[in-house]
């Protein structure tokens, strides 16, 4: 027996180690829970190291940038002394623009502008694994971060918190195949599910082929997933074509464009409206309507103030307008005021044939050669007498 | 000399060629590989495709030529990688355990100091690693993930090239006899 064990020692140990890990896996799958302690240890051990490296890198970069920036400022100041006040003001304006463009300030501005309660976090590491679409941020459960919270930037959504450790959190990026979020298109309000594709782009699933989605259209969060509040930018459609059974829509996630360094974790989301589509609404000159000539015949409804456009221009009556006018005439002919008669009063007979004399003159078409104002001022004119 | 005698002699020679490393090398190099994988891709996105923990596991397993040592290194590195990834604990663990065992077994039979052999092994173990991970994801977790053959082969080649260079560097950390 001992010889047998010695002979198969290697394979026995291999099977034992694999078996132990299979039990570990089975435990996690069965209980749908993580072996949190091991992860907490690992993340807590790595976070300070990553933070130190990140701090050293940031410090070095900041020192170099500040040095270069200061040197430029001195040179610029020398030049500015010789220039006019207009250039000074222009320079000030550019500096303000630069400051506004600063990412951290943009983040802060967005945080203040947004109704949702958020905290800023910095990406400190990526998750292990060659195809991992997850990052670690430097805010954890001690800062109030919880699993499932949404992560955004001013440009758009980034992902969601997959696990919150005391000093750091693991954020699943929107490009990960296991990521999903409810989205709605800006223009036609088409609803779908955003899913990652494992690389730069995302796709929007479960959109019927009949629904209209255009390339370049923006998608926003719908709020249905209870992760992201409604109205946050998601990305722009790069391609949309019919598929089986649903449309194949590719989307460029705006929040991940150019990589993520600083993010905001949504602690308490407040739903907002989907922003209105900004159309090219430049002021277009519209000339005044031509004056009514003596031979111009206009329908009576066009003479009503209610049928005039916003700028007083006459609007052609629609079929609905004509039907409404017809029923109003029937009501008037039977002495019925729509919306005013008490309950139990005699209902209107809509089959009632209006005799020419029953029709109020103001609502009658005037095919006469007179101007509209003149014909309206002659209510006694009956067609029988003409 | 019969074949079996020759084989036994070669096998024995390989066993005597076991490379030894200082404890800090065995501890720090895998740790550095894992840290590299979680930190460097933040700034150089294309480096995310480097599987340094795998390369390091393969190296130590090949050099130490001990299947048990190889599988233990693989298990530890894999579990550490698991704990910093989004996958369940044990996925990388099992994968690297098998890789460590197979690599150590291969190390007993081949001259793993030759760069060409190292290139081939680096490529093979990367593809094998991806394959085992894919099988585990589908078989144990029921995830519907696709095995991207073309991408895996290209990344395998890239990782193999890096592995050859890294092996050369790690050779310098061996204890001198």
Topology (SSEs and partners):
The complex is a heterodimer of chains A (386) and B (177).
Chain A: H1 2-7, H2 9-31, H3 36-81, H4 85-101, H5 103-113, E1 117-126, E2 134-137, E3 150-153, E4 156-164, E5 169-173, E6 180-185, E7 191-196, E8 202-205, E9 218-221, E10 233-241, E11 248-253, E12 262-268, H6 319-333, H7 372-376
Chain B: H1 3-16, H2 23-39, H3 52-64, H4 67-83, H5 91-109, H6 115-139, H7 149-171
Helix pairs in contact in B: 2-3, 3-4, 3-5, 3-7, 4-5, 5-6, 6-7
Radius of gyration of chain B: 16 Å
End-to-end separation of chain A in angstroms reads: 127 Å
Low-pLDDT residue spans of chain A: 299-313, 361-386
Mean pLDDT of chain A: 76
Indicate the CATH class of the domain at 124-268 in chain A: Mainly Beta
The best one-word shape of chain A is flat
Write down the overall geometry of chain B.
globular
- Count the helices of chain B. How many? 7
Q: Could you state the CATH homologous superfamily of the domain at 124-268 in chain A?
A: Rod shape-determining protein MreC, domain 2
Count of alpha/pi helices of chain A: 7
Largest interface: A-B, 42 and 42 residues
CATH topology of the domain at 124-268 in chain A: Thrombin, subunit H
Major sheet summary line of chain B: none
Number of strands of chain A: 12
Q: Between the first and last Cα atoms of chain B, what is the distance in angstroms?
A: 30 Å
Spell out the key features of this protein.
heterodimer; A: alpha+beta; Thrombin, subunit H; six-stranded antiparallel barrel; six-stranded antiparallel beta barrel; disordered C terminus; B: 177 residues; mainly alpha; globular
